[in-house]
């Protein structure tokens, strides 16, 4: 009877959102270039209805997904009294499925509001409000009282709301601030201005929100650690005093092992001849966990586990390899970014979430590297159930500031705890390609100590780290793997004692699939091939990979399973509709490396790509254009086709006809077209960019319009003069020609002149030129460029006034974050200018941040400063 009452209360409360809880008419998915087959299945009544935490299940729960009220205010504003409209939780604000599709800037705050009812239950005395994930800083209010807050865009958090939860209606408000790529917060590949390998931001609630009714003393966490023939389960509660726990492992409902003990203490369940979990056989044991006090049952949950081990061992040839359950297992994987065209960070449905893993397995892979994103719990559950090895990246440190590093370490600790129980996760990946890397050896050791049940990849793609230590033997210290990246590749990492060799990223072959692109005019890849040639190229690359496997490679991660926005390197399209190599063909190719771990799934439905190169139709389409076909979409596609085939004359004619359909203000898609079609000052698009530069920068990203204008002006007006056979360029003539283009012309003129004197070592002309250039355009220069000019002054000049001016440039370069190289430059400039004590203080700071490979040089320079010796 109590269960019936609870279920009834859930049904009633799910339709009691303020004014429009069940009104689907108040919401609709926003338009996007491509959708998935699941987009149309989403509605306010079925927004991710599944139980969100498969590793610790209770039957009594209430899903709070659905329509909420939302508003956007200034960052420091109080909670609003009126709201803008409806948003569908848990789809992020920027997504089409939220019904809003708006960006949140760092100067703004996002607010959610809804009414919740207290469940009618006689056994529960406490009420827990759960958030799967909110990006990035969340503050929660109930009935006007602040009841909790949380920082971190990927970690689940829970608030006990019992003290403020009253019978009847309760007003729940969540305020969210997300600095995206402008703050110290780990954010993966989210940026406010998507480009290249960076994609659209996710702000706000992006995983399920739910309510649980629990007893006064309850189970609040599990830590499940498998071994070869056993599993250890630690059951923590909100109050361990005088409580006992019982854990039973079952298969098919039949108990196979059990253990009892004090709450909070690890319990060992021995399972002789345990059925081990693997991609070939993803067998899982059910777990029943109960909490008692003086023999009385207080609480119970269910869970599961897989019995498996992962280690680095030598094979019969003495090669260090990855071993799963004591057997060498090649990790044939893909680099999965976890983005969706309709939901961004949030899959449209649970079926869609499962489909991605099923698709990757159906193609013959056994491993997924989850790339700098933490997924919802159900993604890992599906990996456990389907049988997929997971390399889990930490979400990259935001920058090199001390504040960002503290947040990175805090979130890493939470990530390891949050994801500990999933048997599919066999490897933690700490750093990637040197991005904001620090204390690699210390943090790798911390990971190994914290979780000895998995292998640790201390640095994936360390060969791409420009600041890597010079001695190869000092790379990947304490890591279980040596890991390189090679595009397109493949390649093989170096052999080192005690470490397996893996290829952490490779591939990146672009294949365009018309009508399945996020933005065809901006799509890119590391290398590009026509559709008809892809299968042959991929098979050729895989044959080379097999050679490396025989030489000792233990794993490889192909970039990537699905296209992501404009990155078109996927084996399948972004909408998950088209596979670029027929599935049976790609399975056969992969079988040279590993046997397929399952038969082709019956529910894996995908269409083969049309391998006819659409550019082959260009001549016929151009003739159709000349005969008068001038509709908008035809002109746009034909102009882009002309550019791809380098028919620039016709490209401009066609683009000019297409421009007649465009009226300002231009959309981002229109700006992308203009940028792609504009390569000369004579092109019509050049005047568009000049006239509406501010709007172009807003759509395309900070200073992108300025950079585009300057590139074109340089190519047309400056490069011919500099590249001529004249002994000395005519700078006066160039100035006359560039000034007609206004600020962009003046800036590129000054930059070109500065770089010309620098590259040609004309130091008498360089100093006054660079001083004038930086004096006017310092705000536009990168820290690296400012540092290059500043260190040049240090080595080339003795004038104290100029040295102090350059130290000012160096100080500007440090505004975006301290780096040892920037501090080194500033210290040396001040020292040469006679500011000894200030220089020593800064050099000491540079030494504390210096990479291991540079420390001896930094120490030597510091010693010279203290001895009053020249450092130049």
UniProtKB/TrEMBL annotation:
Name the source's superkingdom: Bacteria
> InterPro entries per the record?
Beta-gal/glucu_dom_sf (IPR036156), Beta-mannosidase-like_N2 (IPR054593), Galactose-bd-like_sf (IPR008979), GH (IPR017853), GH2_Domain-Containing (IPR051913), Glyco_hydro_2_cat (IPR006103), Ig-like_fold (IPR013783), Ig-like_GH2 (IPR006102)
Locate the Glycoside hydrolase family 2 immunoglobulin-like beta-sandwich domain: which residues?
Answer: 218-308
User: What are the Beta-mannosidase-like galactose-binding domain coordinates in residue numbering?
Assistant: 107-185
Name one molecular function that GO assigns to this entry. hydrolase activity, hydrolyzing O-glycosyl compounds
List the PROSITE patterns hit by this protein, alphabetically: PROKAR_LIPOPROTEIN, TPR
Q: In the UniProt record, does the keyword Nucleotide-binding occur?
A: no
TPR repeats (start-end)? 820-853
GO BP of this protein: carbohydrate metabolic process
* Keywords, alphabetical: Glycosidase, Hydrolase, Signal, TPR repeat
Extent of the signal sequence: 1-23
One Pfam family, short name: Glyco_hydro_2
Domain named Glycoside hydrolase family 2 catalytic: which ranges? 351-460
Question: Would you identify the family this protein belongs to, as annotated?
Answer: Belongs to the glycosyl hydrolase 2 family.
Q: What protein name is recorded for this chain? A: Glycosyl hydrolases family 2, TIM barrel domain
In which organism is this protein found? Chitinophaga jiangningensis
């Amino acid at each position: 009877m109590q269960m019936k009452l609870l279920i009834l209360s859930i049904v009633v409360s799910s339709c009691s959102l303020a004014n429009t809880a069940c009104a689907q008419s108040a919401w609709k998915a926003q338009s996007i270039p491509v959708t998935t087959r699941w987009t149309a299945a989403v509605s306010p009544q079925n927004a991710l209805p599944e139980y969100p935490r498969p590793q610790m299940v209770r039957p009594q729960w209430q899903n709070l997904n659905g329509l909420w009220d939302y508003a956007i205010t200034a960052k420091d504003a109080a909670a609003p009294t009126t709201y803008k409209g409806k948003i569908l939780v848990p789809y992020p604000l920027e997504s089409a499925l939220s019904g809003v599709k708006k960006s949140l800037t760092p100067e703004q705050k996002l607010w959610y509001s809804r009414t919740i009812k207290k469940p009618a239950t006689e056994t529960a005395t406490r009420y827990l409000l759960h958030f799967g994930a909110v990006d990035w800083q969340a503050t929660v209010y109930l009935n006007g009282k602040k009841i909790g807050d949380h920082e971190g865009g990927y970690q689940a958090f829970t608030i006990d709301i019992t003290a403020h939860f009253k019978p009847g209606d309760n007003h729940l408000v969540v305020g969210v601030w997300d600095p995206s790529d402008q703050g110290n917060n780990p954010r993966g590949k989210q940026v406010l201005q998507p480009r290249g390998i960076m994609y659209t931001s996710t702000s706000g609630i992006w995983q399920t929100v739910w309510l649980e009714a629990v007893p006064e003393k309850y189970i609040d966490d599990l830590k499940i650690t498998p071994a070869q023939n056993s599993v250890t389960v630690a059951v923590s509660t909100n109050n361990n005093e005088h409580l006992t726990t019982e854990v039973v492992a079952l298969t098919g409902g039949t108990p196979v092992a059990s253990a009892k003990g004090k709450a909070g203490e690890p319990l060992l369940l021995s399972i002789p001849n345990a059925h081990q979990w693997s991609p070939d056989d993803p067998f899982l044991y059910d777990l029943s966990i109960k909490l008692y006090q003086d023999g009385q049952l207080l609480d119970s949950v269910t869970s599961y586990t897989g019995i498996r081990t992962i280690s680095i061992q030598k094979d019969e040839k003495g090669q260090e390899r990855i071993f799963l359950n004591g057997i060498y297992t090649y990790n044939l994987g893909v680099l999965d970014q976890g983005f969706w065209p309709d939901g961004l960070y949030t899959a449209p449905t649970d079926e869609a979430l499962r489909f991605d893993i099923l698709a990757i397995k159906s193609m013959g892979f056994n491993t997924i590297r989850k790339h700098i994103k933490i997924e919802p719990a159900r993604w890992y559950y599906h990996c456990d159930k389907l049988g997929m090895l997971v390399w889990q990246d930490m979400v990259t440190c935001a920058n090199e500031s001390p504040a960002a590093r503290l947040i990175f370490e805090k979130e890493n600790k939470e990530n390891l705890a949050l994801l500990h129980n999933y048997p599919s996760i066999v490897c933690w990946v700490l750093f990637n390609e040197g991005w904001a890397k620090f204390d690699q050896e210390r943090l790798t050791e911390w990971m190994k100590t914290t979780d000895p049940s998995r292998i640790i990849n201390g640095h994936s793609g360390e060969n791409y780290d420009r600041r890597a230590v010079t001695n190869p033997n000092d790379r990947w210290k304490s890591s279980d793997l040596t890991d390189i990246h090679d595009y397109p590749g493949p390649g093989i990492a170096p052999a080192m004692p005690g470490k397996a060799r893996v290829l952490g990223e490779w591939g990146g072959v672009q294949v365009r699939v018309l009508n399945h692109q996020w933005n065809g005019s901006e799509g890119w890849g590391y290398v590009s091939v026509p559709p008809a040639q892809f299968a042959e190229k991929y098979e050729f690359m895989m044959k080379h990979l097999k050679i490396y496997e025989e030489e000792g490679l233990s794993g490889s991660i192909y970039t990537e399973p699905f296209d992501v926005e404009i990155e078109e390197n996927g084996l399948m399209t972004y909408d998950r509709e088209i596979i670029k190599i027929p599935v049976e063909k790609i399975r056969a190719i992969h079988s040279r490396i590993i046997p397929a771990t399952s038969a082709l799934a019956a529910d894996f439905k995908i269409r083969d790509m049309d391998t006819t190169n659409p550019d082959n139709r260009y001549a016929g389409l151009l003739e159709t254009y000349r005969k008068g076909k001038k509709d908008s979409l035809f002109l746009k596609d034909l102009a882009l086709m002309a550019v791809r085939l380098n028919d620039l004359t016709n490209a401009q004619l066609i683009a000019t006809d297409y421009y007649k359909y465009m009226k300002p203000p231009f959309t981002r898609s229109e700006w992308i077209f203009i940028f792609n079609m504009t390569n000369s000052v004579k092109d019509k698009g050049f005047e568009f960019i000049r006239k509406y530069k501010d709007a172009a920068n807003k759509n395309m990203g900070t200073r992108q319009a300025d950079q585009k204008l300057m590139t074109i002006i340089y190519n047309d007006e400056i490069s011919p003069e500099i590249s001529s056979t004249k002994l000395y360029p005519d700078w006066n003539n160039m100035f006359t020609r560039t000034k007609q283009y206004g600020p962009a012309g003046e800036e590129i003129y000054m930059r070109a002149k500065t770089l010309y004197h620098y590259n040609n070592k004309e130091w008498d002309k360089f100093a006054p030129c660079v001083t004038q250039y930086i004096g006017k355009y310092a705000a536009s220069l990168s820290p690296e460029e400012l540092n290059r000019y500043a260190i040049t002054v240090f080595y080339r000049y003795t004038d104290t006034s100029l040295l102090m001016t350059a130290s000012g440039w160096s100080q500007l370069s440090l505004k975006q974050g301290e780096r040892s190289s920037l501090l080194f430059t500033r210290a040396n400039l001040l020292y040469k200018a006679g500011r000894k004590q200030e220089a020593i203080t800064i050099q000491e700071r540079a030494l504390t941040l210096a990479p291991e490979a540079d420390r001896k040089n930094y120490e030597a320079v510091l010693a010279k400063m203290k001895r009053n010796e020249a450092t130049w």
